[in-house]
Structure formats: C-alpha cells, structure tokens
Amino acid sequence: MALSSSSSAPAKGVVVTVPVLVLSVSAAAIFLFFLLSSLSSSPSTCTCPVPTATTTAAGAEAYGRFGERISPTAEDVKWVKDQIESNGLRMQDNVLRKGINPRTRAQQLQDLVQFKGISHYEGEESSNHTALPCPGELLVEEHHSNYGEPWAGGRDVFEFLADSVHLSPNARVLEIGCGTLRVGLHFIRYLNPGHFHCLERDELSLMAAFRYELPSQGLLHKRPLIVKGEDMDFGKFGSGMYDLIYASAVFLHMPDKLVWTGLESLVNKLKPFEGRIFVSHNIKFCSRLGGDECTKRLSKLGLEYLVKHTHDSLLFNHYEICWLFFDLFERLCFNLI
Known about the structure:
By secondary structure, this protein is of the alpha/beta class.
C-alpha cells in the first residue's frame, strides 16, 4: 500500500517507461525469431545444373529445349507407313519404264561430260549460265558413297546428339572432321546462322561441302565456319565456347598423340557445366594406355569419361557406338548435391 500510495514524480517516470521497454524488447525478440527461422529453413543449394539422362530410344522425346522438332515420333513413323500402305506401294526392280530413264551415277557423269551440261549449251554458252559451276562428280553425288554406310545415317547421328544435349538453335557446335557434311548439314539447318563450326583436312570433302551440299540444300545463308586445317589446330575459331563438340569416326584415323593434343585444346573451348564432348566408334587412344592411365590423363585435362551409348538408325539396321565426356567442374558440382 505504501508503494501504491506514493505519488512522487520519479515513481511516475518509472511506471511509464517500463511498458515501452518491455514492448521494444518483445518486438526485437520476435523479429530475431523470424529471422533465424527463415535462415534455418533455407538449406544451402547448388546452382549447378541437375544432370539429365542422355540415353535415347524409340519413342523418346522428339523436341529440343525450346520446342523445336528434332527426332520423329512413333506417330510420325506410323503416319508414313500408313501412307505407303494406303497407296498400295511396293518395292519394284529398277527397270526401264516409259518416260523414265534410270541412270547410274557413272552414266549420269558420262552424260554431263558428253553433253557439256544438262541443258546442252555449246561453246561459250556451256559455262556462263550458272553462278556457281559445280563439278560433275559432285552433281551426281559420288561423294555420298564415300562412307561405310548410307548417307542417311548422318541424320541419325544428328538426332542422337541433339536429343542427348537438349540442343537449342542458339547453341554453338564444333565438329572435328565434318567431311562432306553428312552430319553437319542437319546441324547447320537447325542452328542459328554462324553457330556451326568445323575443322576438316580433306580438300575434296571441303569442295563437296562448299560447291554442292550447302548451295543445293539452300544453306548458304547459315554461314557455317568450316576451316581447312590439320593437326587439331583450332586457332582460327576464336575464343568462343561450345555447347557440343563431337568427332564422328575421326579419332580412329589419328595418331593417339595427336588426339590427346586435340583434347587438351578442346577443353578450353567447352562451355563450363553444360558442354559435352562426344566421340563415336572407338576410343582406342584411351584404352591403349592400359589400366586407369586414361582416367588419370582425362582428369589432368579437366575431363571425365561418363558413359557409352548406342543409337539406332531410322532407315537401316545399324547402330553406332558413342562415348561421352564432360567438363570435370560439372562432376565436382554434382558430387556436392
């Protein structure tokens, strides 16, 4: 009672200040509680991309990252089979028929030589009616027989690689040994202008690419960077990074030492975390080292062997073996997840 009956000024000052102090401390405690709760509920995350399966099979996803069609679907295959059946089409012997004169490539070439061109221009007129004269050997597509399998297999390789890396038109692709563009044509058509690069040493193959394949396929506007060069010299390609680097049946024709020299250069051109390197047919440059020596050498380059794939052909009974390597930095990141 004595305390409550006291009405001095200092006592009133204490009574007024205590609630304010209590409220301030409470507000600060509540704020600190929510702050700590939010921090504890947010586990550390890795911003590296999540690894995705790269195997492809019948009925697999047929679209790229941004919805562009790449591989045919099961519905596409069924449609074309239905069209063949509904039209009653059957394979027939290639015999002479009225209005059609089947010619072998050799016969076509002889016609070009004998008649100086399809239109039979004579004299000076025989060479000034085309903006880009093409040798007869290319016009009859003799270079399509330079491979150990049908020319159509190039599309199979493209679809497999494009699907495996979820290729987008804006991606940058480097092919080592693009030859006459059996595979490259499909990349050039799909990618944005200037995004397909290639190193090729064979002059005849390059002539076929520049003087026949690109013009005849209407792809000159895509401006691919195709460079004649040897010894895995990528100096003319600048400092750009690639989403996909591949060598289709090329390394087996090179000395092992040259392959390793090339891989050392390619590592610096592979886009971190997302870039992939594919090698088809065999990796004897690696297996010939014996033991785990290949793994050690790849690690020193910042690469790691990932997996072996096989992919089937759409049009003929054949499959191709492909080995996948990728940037070691991505493997380290994935191990942290």
